[in-house]
Design brief:
The chain has about 350 residues and is α/β, with parallel strands linked by helices. It has one domain: TIM Barrel (Alpha-Beta Barrel). Helices cover about 45% and strands about 15% of the residues. The strands form two sheets. Strands 1, 2, 3, 4, 5 and 6 form a six-stranded mixed sheet that branches. A hairpin with an 8-residue loop joins strand 7 (about 305) and strand 8 (about 315). The N and C termini lie far apart (about 60 Å). Belongs to the glycosyl hydrolase 1 family. One of its GO terms (molecular function) is beta-glucosidase activity. Pfam families: Glyco_hydro_1 (PF00232).
């Protein structure tokens, strides 16, 4: 397609101009949630959807079909870029090319068989939609069954091109959900209805709306389980945790909660590695406060506070920056923070 050709031409420029300095390339960020936001719920540009699935009233789009078309086009564009790098640049630059997916762990709400099946279905729709084609050359069987003719198939040539077209998996992971079965709607369906699950942030929460809950509590164990699931399901490819962090409306410098969050999630990453997960890197989100896609400047993730009311945008280290710096200076060999250590760090700074 023209989209794939243009994206490959763009990547060619990037590889040519920056490949002597960049060794790891991620083609697309959050490919799975990206196409949902753009072509199902209309949260993201170009804001296409159809009633009743959009968060706003859309004038154009089809939520039941377009996300699946967009995902296939994006996957084919990724595979084209991967092939270009392998054929033209890899021998000299010796870099790697992967893709990023949005990740959350899903627990069954109950031990009922239908909820256990719903939980696996959630994983197949979240991870398998993208990684199934990239690793095995095709979509998960449950997606083909539930989506039917709305899921654009891969030709034999396309399947061969896309299969194996990644050197690593990147994930952005923040929380977990609890999942229970939801009967498959008989009418017009979108991605969430095709998945046929209800999800919530805790066992006692009401079901979330269009997508997964955005205010789910911290669950570091979920990251460990996600990393181990990816290892077991997709052949233990190298994995990078490319985003993990805690957002807050609180502008405080004494962000002990963020230290606890980062420490616990890094600890769970280490446990997954000790259990054989091929994790090659972890990146805390974010270095400093910035403009978040959905919440703008209202949600702050930064280790460094940015004063957005001052036109000079001065930055100031939060307690988490000092703690993280100390952790890195010791090559990560120091113990991850306990509550007592957080309090001790706070006393040293104050």
């Amino acid at each position: 397609t023209k989209c794939s050709e243009d994206f490959t031409a763009y990547a060619d420029v990037c590889f040519r101009e920056f490949g002597n300095r960049v060794a790891s390339w991620t083609t697309i960020d959050e490919i799975n949630i990206g196409v949902i936001g753009s072509y199902d719920s209309a949260l993201f540009p170009p804001g296409r959807c159809s009633d009743p699935f959009g968060v706003t009233k859309c004038t154009t789009g089809d939520s039941s079909i377009e996300p699946y078309i967009a995902a296939k086009n994006a996957l084919m564009a990724h595979a084209s870029v991967f092939s270009l790098y392998r054929e033209k640049y890899q021998h000299k630059q010796k870099g790697i090319v992967g893709i990023n997916i949005y990740s959350y762990w899903s627990y069954p709400l109950t031990n009922a068989t239908v909820d256990l099946e719903a939980t696996q279905r959630c994983k197949d729709f979240l991870y398998g939609w993208i990684l199934g084609p990239l690793v095995f050359g095709d979509y998960p069987q449950v997606m083909k069954k539930n989506v039917g003719s709305r899921l654009p198939p891969f030709t034999k040539v396309q399947s061969e091109l896309i299969k194996g077209s990644l050197d690593f998996i990147g994930i952005n992971h923040y929380f977990s959900v609890y999942v229970n079965d939801r009967p498959l709607d008989t009418g017009v369906r979108d991605y969430k209805a095709d998945m046929s699950v209800n999800s919530r942030g805790s066992r006692t929460d009401p079901p979330a709306g269009q997508g997964p809950p955005t205010d789910a509590p911290s669950d570091p164990k979920g990251l460990q389980l996600a990393l181990e699931y990816l290892k077991e399901t997709y052949g233990n490819l190298p994995i990078y945790v490319q985003e993990n962090g805690m957002g807050s409306a609180d502008d405080s410098l004494d962000d002990t909660g963020r230290i606890g969050y980062l420490s616990s999630y890094m600890g769970s990453t280490l446990k997954a590695m000790r259990n054989g997960a091929n994790v090659r890197g972890y990146f805390a989100w974010a270095f400093m406060d910035l403009f978040e896609l959905l919440s703008g400047y209202q949600s702050r993730y930064g280790l460094y506070r940015v004063n957005f009311t001052d036109e000079r945008r001065p930055r100031e280290a939060r307690l988490s920056a000092r703690w993280y710096s100390g952790f890195l200076k010791h090559n990560g060999t120091t113990a991850l923070a306990s509550r007592a250590q957080v309090n001790q760090a706070l006393n040293l700074v104050s």
